[in-house]
Amino acid sequence: MKKMRTVDAVGQVLCHDITQIIRGVSKGPVFRKGHIIQPEDIPVLLSVGKEQIYIWENNEHMLHENDAAIILRDICQGRHIAAGEPKEGKIELTADCDGLFLVDTQGLYRVNALGQMMIATRHGGFAVRKGDRLAGTRIIPLVIEKEKMEAAKQAAGSQPLMQVVPFRNIRYGVVTTGSEVFHGRIKDTFTDVIVSKMAEFGAVMAAHDILDDDPAAITRAINGMLEQHLDMVLCTGGMSVDPDDQTPLAIKNTGARIVSYGAPVLPGAMFLLSYMTDGRPVVGLPGCVMYARRTIFDLVLPSLIAGVPITADRLASLGEGGYCLNCPVCTFPNCGFGK
Q1: pTM for this prediction
Q2: I need a surface site. Which of 25, 34, 103, 226 has the fewest CB within 10 A?
Q3: Distance separating alpha carbons of residues 238 and 324, to the nearest angstrom
């Protein structure tokens, strides 16, 4: 790449796109990379502020921005992610199915820390829909050292930095507990909330039991649903620390591995997550899920539907951003909750 005066550049090959911006009207290239400059092009180049331009010179140690952008794309692009064509060193990535968007946060940091290139993504761990924009990449200079791009590959590691895990077709059961509901003293309004949230992901409730605060009966109900080959069991009621709250004990007695009883999220501190030995989740939902618009359940549900295991470390990391502000107009997930 060599810089030269525009008026002297007739016959030379452009090594980058030349963009024209007309406020409120358009933004786009007037000339593309590889264009051979003609005499009539000089006034156009001057009109977009190009007194000097870069023309192409071969250099075996350097890569053009678009060629380097393709390498950066390959570093990022995992399963179920589509990519656009490189333009001015930029490539945009989109989801090619509904699913859970995952990002290798540490790998992303290592690549961005190299400088001269950038990857900007939406927040991982949240649901995306087919066609959603996921990330944009850009090579900062017009040309970049091949060695720098090799360093980016090493920094990213052996696996792509991003992927979308498709949502599964889920059949689930709900175990509603509490003497007040069991004896008909109050109406069960919790289950409708669960059905509504699960329906957003195409999940279907295939079993529902309403039980007294009897841990043995609750355990039997959970195991019965699992024996029906349901993919997940959700338990409501009895998740606090009152003497009558027996649901955590009942879940433990199924033999499930308790990942966490409690989460650093408000609303949702009394959340319980466990997995059976075959990986199926058994979840205890705190009462706030029934009345608060967004809770811990909304943060973990995409992972549960996608079948991506949730670790104790993942739950612990939700503390920063885990405080819902209960805004008058809820814009979740386009807000800071869970981020």
Answers
A1: 0.85
A2: 25
A3: 23
Residue 44, phi then psi, degrees to nearest 5: -65, -45
Q: How far apart are CA 176 and CA 52, in angstroms?
A: 72
- Taking the C-alpha atoms of residue 336 and residue 321, their distance in angstroms, rounded to an integer, is 6
Pairing of strands 90-95, 81-83: antiparallel
Is the model's pLDDT at 255 over the cut of 70?
yes
Strands 232-236 and 171-177: parallel
* CATH at 124: 3.90.1170
Predicted confidence (pLDDT) per residue in 51-90, tens digit: 888 777 666 788 888 889 999 999 999 999 999 999 878 9
- The CA distance from 88 to 139, in Å, is 8
Domain containing 141 equals 62-166
- Shared domain check, 245 and 215: yes
pLDDT for 258-292, tens place per residue? 999 999 999 999 999 999 999 999 999 999 999 99
